[in-house]
Amino acid sequence: MTNRAEPTTPDSALTTALEHELTVFTRKAFWRFWTTRYPEVAGLDQTTYPYLAVITARPELTVGELSRMFNVDKSTASRHVAKLTGGGLVRVVDNPPNARTQPLQVTDEGRHRVAIVQADRAAWLHGVLADWPEQDQRDLARLVARLNADLDAREARLRTR
Q1: DSSP symbols for 98-109
Q2: What residues contact residue 66 under an 8 Å CB cut-off, 6+ apart?
Q3: Sign of dihedral through CA atoms 131, 31, 16, 139?
Q4: DSSP label at 158?
Q5: Residue range 136-161, pLDDT digits in tens
Q6: Residues 6+ apart with CB under 8 A from 88
Q7: Number of H helices and number of E strands within the chain?
């Protein structure tokens, strides 16, 4: 038995090429970059970093909100948050009015780690795009933002069904 979903729309050469390029980009820009650039930090790795970055950008998120944002079950999000809290990068805030929803806050150390990774990755990306015309860089940023917004909207529609 396989876990692969059957396609719901006809395949096209353009969609196939885009999927391939996004896969290669993800591998180069995130996984390979992460594993070759950063020393071990308790609780922080290529899997937990996106959670830390989101919690830094949007304080007071809960584990449930993170699970919806990353489209994972709550136990998976909880495991990642537990690694971050264990590493002293995130803390859970008491919420007496509603003990079931505990907001998350980034610690000073977590904020420091995010700043280091973001600055390093921005410098790396700046070097990669240095020969691109500024308009091409703006177009890329706009289109990736649009792709992310459309992905979020699609997930929201699927959750309401």
Answers
A1: GTT---EEE-HH
A2: 51, 54, 55, 77, 80, 81, 104
A3: negative
A4: H
A5: 999 999 999 999 899 888 888 887 87
A6: 42, 43, 107, 109, 110
A7: 7, 2
